[in-house]
Amino acid sequence: MDLDLRKLRYFASVAELRHFGRAAEQLYIAQPVLSRQIKSLEQELGCTLLLRTTRSVELTTAGKQLYEEAQQLLPSIAAAVRRVHDVEQGVRRLAVAFSPGLHVSDAIRAFAALHPDVEIDVIPARWWEQDRPLRDGRAQVGYLRRPFDETGLRVVPIGHEPRVACIPAAHPLASRQQLTSADLDGERMLVTSKRRTMTLEEKFELIAAGRNIALIPLGVARSYSRPDLVYLPVTDTPPQETCLAVAADRREKLLRDFLEIATETLRHS
């Protein structure tokens, strides 16, 4: 059976938004057309992907698996098509992934000064799958924080970044200048490993609502300042290591040049 990539893209939009109307708007198609395409995909696969009610759309077990596959497959195909077009048009391109709160702009400027003919793209890397852009072909190099899956990757250490406690502004600890791990004993900590698809915005909303406290990298705190949150250093919490990562089998000169420049630039930034 051949999988229709258009239907897969339609399904991925519904699965992400959990709403047929909003997905149809995003895809610029009529909602009845979208519904028919999803139904056709389910018939072709021989399984139910979505559970529909008048007010919500939920993924079945099969739907969750297909959505996971689609998140890897669709970006990989889009990246492959772009590479084909680049070859046809003689474009040299470098795509750099970066974790939230990490700034790779200094390295890009230094590289572009020596390679002005190279097109440079930046790809946000989601915190729970930082290595994904390197594996699906969207990026050739990533500026990331450990830990992540390093299988098949070559990693160049860059430095260390402190973590801070993110606390609701009304919390009793918010008036302190700094904390220790002992100060957080008994507090309800937000364990993000149990909620893989939680965005940073969702995380901060939960914390601001007084539901949790979280330890986050300092760069993330600086990038997401808001008046209802306080960020405090935790003096005995180990920092996170920052690094550059590339696929172990990639040795192109363009990539080697960027790694050399970025390593020097980011270590001194």
TrEMBL record:
Matching CDD domains: PBP2_LTTR_aromatics_like
Similarity comment: family membership: Belongs to the LysR transcriptional regulatory family.
Protein name: LysR family transcriptional regulator
InterPro entries: LysR_HTH_N, LysR_subst-bd, WH-like_DNA-bd_sf, WH_DNA-bd_sf
Species name: Streptomyces lunalinharesii
Pfam families named among the record's database cross-references: HTH_1 (PF00126), LysR_substrate (PF03466)
Record key words, sorted: DNA-binding, Transcription, Transcription regulation
Superkingdom classification of source: Bacteria
Domain HTH lysR-type: 3-60
